[in-house]
Write a structure and sequence with these properties.
single chain; alpha+beta; 45 strands; about 950 residues
């Protein structure tokens, strides 16, 4: 019997006895949510010095499977580790305090180093730092982007010198006979075997009618051509890197990790968590099975239920059909494909193993041992020779996520304290001449170079047909590591983000000068009792959007030649061998696909050739992590619609200008009279004032502030004037407005109009300078910018000319010289011109042809792009390196007249492959207009 020393803590809110006090509770909302309890507030009996204790023991109940950070507040700062809870049940979590006191260990890769399994929860120890626990003053629970306002209840906190064990106190079994979590429900959850068989049959029927018609037998693009060699290779074509498949077709590797038949979870000591257990004879067929303790696989059991005794062959056939139908053309598992059992016939990447035998530390063996080269060559021969002539092999990886980059000092400590060997002897000799962090790193990098050179030589000796895909690096290796990683045909890296940063890919390529393969990425949701994974989505729809965004953004980069999702199958709800239980599969434990993920994959995979060729922009639709929005989307979430005019409900022609005097953004617009229901023809479009709205939060929300104080033309037309399409600029302390004036209210369009110039010192009250002489009595819709030579240029519509937009130049904004047509290939009005991302962009409303876009390097010669923007007459506001398109209306409706009422909306702009692209108006838009004018920067 264990002898335990425990200091008990009961959390309460009054002087009532412990059994009468409700548990402490925290609710998490927003983008970042945390709750801190000072120890003195919780219980003054709990000591501040925890140095004599080994376990923090907490009884808690989490309403969600979403992970949270449990932090210890100390005199030296917060030390936090990430907890993966079971949802909806009270548990006891005995948390080893060594994870807070000391650095992580020396696992062979990142997951083995930082994931730590427990029986009633699991813990990742990568978060924040570590240090002495001699002065603990509080506990903090924090959660990023909580989904659905989850809660955490805590009813007991104790300290122990020995492990009291983890426990699930209620709600058992947690897992039903199909491997599903019992305390959650969702569409498609299996409640009986008959129900499952019905879903399986429906999927197989649907697969018979699904196919990609533009792919060859390897998954390459049929309508492309390069040199065929009978094996996969890489080539840079027109400035973009590609795989080339054995038939000579260009190939972008859309892949899935872990395509196999098993997903083992630990059973031993946790038997009461399961309603039923898979037959023991199935574990030998499950990838990574390793017996009952680690390998009980409900997925394998469900495959046997689906296919019967010959389930392996039927699974391989179905998986081939699935991957082909969904557009996946690459798969790989954690070792070589089975030589004796059926496998899907899809190009595969081979994960080579065996280099780290012996006394390996952080994945680095004794590379100076006499027998190291021999052992490497034996491992290479055994693994490669059975596959060296297989054209379906894409290539081979030689390692995965070494955990030592950035931790070279710890690696040297581990070598120095390990069993004596040649590596240790050389390190001691090396450090005898100076033990510094720089020299330790130098030693490790030199050993790593020997490691790589030895492996690369051996594998090339035993296979000259296939590509060396390198090590799948993780965690952002530094330049020293990148430079050492020579000898590969492809540089592979695992990047867990919503999408790789372009500057990251640019930098990697600048160092390695090799095409880049993304070896792992994923996005998951905290649902079905599963955690979200390393990157979180709010739900399955957002997870699907996340797949599309990551793959398309990656494929748009000219050096990226593939993206491999981790992984094929959800992890077990009770965790794999290291505890991870992520909702990251395209398939769930019952062998049912996630329909949202499948449809997203098919859409994106159909677009990959065009995107990677640079002929189509990638999707800009990012995944929401929670109700709080999109991580990394700087700014505030805008409502939709952005703004309605409370007076007449038809704001049009918006233009924005920052008002320094009031510290707010002003929006000026044409206030059409949509409420004038008795006005015939286009009378309601006349008689308009210039409405104004203001924003104090960077453009996210707008408040009506009345109409601009303008009196131009009212002496002759006190009640029947019309103001349209304001253009507002600020120059050296003065606001200028160029306004379309119509002398009257008319039933049709056939009447004079002029562009007039007014100025203001405060952006509210305007004084007229008079009409702009543009040699025509029918001019509308001015846009004015200053060119680099100081000349001002105005674009406008001259209705006396049948088609093109016109332009004029001025040196002083007062006298204008008409210059002729700006563009001649389309007629339009409402021009807007900006200089952004190194080019000029001209946007004009071309009516049935939409808001068309031209680009120019010199503001004279314009090239029309194919893509149109949304809505009607608008304004582009550039703030920092971002830009937003403010417009009225929405997507063009060609078969019906436009409605009278309208609203102002906004989407963010981007430049992709030399084209100006608008964000999706159906997705969240985040805005961050800085409180400064462009001219003041």
């Amino acid at each position: 019997m264990k002898c335990l020393t425990i200091v008990a803590l009961t959390i309460g809110f009054s002087a009532a006895s412990a059994r009468d006090v409700l548990p402490a509770q925290a609710t998490f909302t927003g983008a970042k949510s945390e709750r801190t309890w000072p120890l003195a507030e919780l219980n003054t009996a709990l000591p501040a010095d925890w140095s004599r204790y080994e376990f923090l023991v907490i009884e808690f109940k989490a309403s969600s499977s979403q992970r949270f950070d449990l932090g210890l507040e100390t005199a030296k700062g917060r030390y936090a580790k990430r907890i993966g809870p079971f949802a909806g049940v009270w548990v006891r979590a005995a948390i080893p305090l060594r994870y807070y006191r000391q650095p992580a260990g020396n696992g062979v890769d990142l997951a083995a180093t930082f994931n730590q399994p427990r029986s009633a929860y699991w813990i990742n120890i990568h978060s924040s730092g570590y240090g002495p626990l001699t002065n603990v003053n509080g506990l903090t629970v924090a959660m990023d982007y909580p989904v659905g306002a989850p809660t955490l209840e805590i009813r007991s906190v104790t300290l122990a010198t020995s492990d009291p064990g983890d426990a699930v106190f209620e709600g058992k079994p947690l897992v039903d006979e199909f491997g599903q979590y019992t305390h959650a429900d969702w569409p498609g959850k299996a409640h009986s075997l008959d129900e499952l068989k019905m879903h399986w049959d429906a999927e197989e029927a649907a697969l018979r009618t699904t196919a990609f018609t533009n792919r060859d037998s390897y998954g390459g693009f049929l309508n492309t051509r390069a040199k065929a060699t009978g094996f996969f290779r890489v080539e840079q074509i027109d400035g973009r890197w590609w795989f080339v498949d054995p038939d000579g077709h260009m190939f972008y590797s859309s892949g899935l990790n872990g395509v196999g038949v098993g997903a083992g979870t630990r059973i031993e000591g946790r038997e009461d968590l399961f309603a039923a257990l898979p037959p023991t004879n199935l574990t030998t067929n499950a990838a990574g099975g390793r017996g009952r303790a680690l390998g009980a696989s409900f997925y394998t059991w469900n495959l046997q239920r689906r296919f019967g005794g010959d389930w392996r062959m039927k699974w391989a056939d179905l998986t081939t059909k699935r991957l082909t139908a969904w557009g996946f053309n690459t798969m790989h598992n954690w070792g070589a494909p089975s030589a004796t059992q059926a496998e899907p016939r899809v190009p595969y990447a081979l994960m080579l193993r065996g280099w780290q035998s012996g006394n390996s530390i952080m994945g680095i063996p004794d590379v100076y041992a006499d027998d190291f080269a021999r052992r490497v060559e034996e491992a290479a021969a055994a693994q490669l020779e059975p596959h060296q002539n297989d054209p379906f092999m894409l290539g081979y990886f030689i390692g995965n996520e070494p955990p030592w980059p950035g931790r070279e000092g710890l690696l040297c400590d581990a070598i120095l304290t390990s069993q004596p060997n040649e590596m240790q002897r050389r390190l001691k000799t090396f450090l005898a001449k100076g033990d510094t962090s720089t020299r330790r790193k130098e030693f490790v990098l030199a050993a790593f170079q020997v490691y790589l050179d030895t492996i690369n030589a051996a594998i090339r000796k035993h296979d000259t047909n296939h590509l060396n895909l390198g090590i799948r690096f993780g965690g952002g290796p530094g330049d020293d590591v990148l430079k050492a990683a020579r000898g590969f045909d492809v540089f592979s890296v695992n990047i867990y983000r919503y999408a790789p940063l372009r500057e990251t890919l640019d930098h990697i390529y600048s160092v390695v000068r090799k095409p880049i393969l993304i070896g792992e990425f994923h996005i998951g949701a905290p649902t079905r009792g599963l955690a979200s994974g390393l990157v979180q989505a709010m739900n399955q729809d957002e997870r699907a959007a996340g797949y599309r965004y990551y793959v398309e953004q990656s494929a748009a980069h000219p050096t990226v030649i593939g993206t491999h999702w981790f992984q094929w199958l959800d992890q077990p709800v009770t965790g794999r061998n290291d505890g991870e239980n992520y909702n990251i599969g395209f398939i769930d434990v019952t062998d049912q696909p996630y329909p949202e993920m499948i449809e997203a994959a098919k859409v994106t995979h159909e677009r990959l050739l065009a995107i990677h060729s640079g002929n189509m922009p990638p999707t800009s639709r990012r995944a929401r992590a929670s109700e709080a929005g999109v991580p990394g989307a700087a700014g505030k979430l805008t409502p939709r619609p952005l703004y309605r005019d409370p007076a007449f409900d038809a704001p049009t022609d918006p233009v924005l200008c920052f008002n320094t005097e009031q510290g707010k953004w002003f929006m000026y617009y044409t206030a059409r009279r949509a409420t004038a229901t008795n006005a015939p023809g286009v009378t309601w479009v006349h008689g308009s004032n210039i409405g104004m709205a203001e924003s104090s939060d960077g453009g996210a929300t707008w408040t009506y502030r009345g109409t601009a104080d303008i009196n131009y033309g009212k002496d002759a037309h006190p009640n029947d004037y019309t103001y349209w399409a304001p253009e507002v600029i600020w120059v050296a302390g003065t606001y200028h407005i160029f306004l379309t004036f119509v002398p009257g209210i008319f039933n049709d369009w056939n009447h004079p109009r002029e562009i007039v110039h007014l100025t203001s010192t405060n952006g509210v009250k305007w004084e007229a300078l008079g009409p702009v002489d543009l040699k025509s009595d029918r001019v509308i819709d001015a846009c004015v910018i200053q060119l680099p030579n100081g000349v001002w240029r105005m674009w406008y519509k001259d209705e006396r000319k049948p088609k093109p937009l016109s332009y004029a130049d001025s040196k002083d904004l007062l006298t204008w010289e008409t210059k002729g047509s700006a563009v001649t290939n389309l007629s339009g009005e409402g021009p807007k011109v900006i200089n952004w991302k190194g080019r000029y962009w001209l946007i004009a409303d071309c009516w049935s042809n939409g808001m068309r876009v031209w680009s120019s390097d010199d503001c004279m010669n314009w090239k029309l792009q194919d893509e149109a923007l949304l809505g009607s007459h608008g304004d582009v506001v550039v703030s920092g390196d971002r830009a937003w398109w403010f417009y009225f209306g929405g997507r063009r409706q060609t078969n019906s007249p436009p409605p009278r009422t309208t609203a102002i909306n906004v989407v963010e702009l981007s430049v992709e492959a030399g084209r100006l692209i608008a964000g999706d108006p159906d997705e969240p838009t985040y805005i961050d207009l800085k409180p400064v004018r462009e001219d003041e920067k």
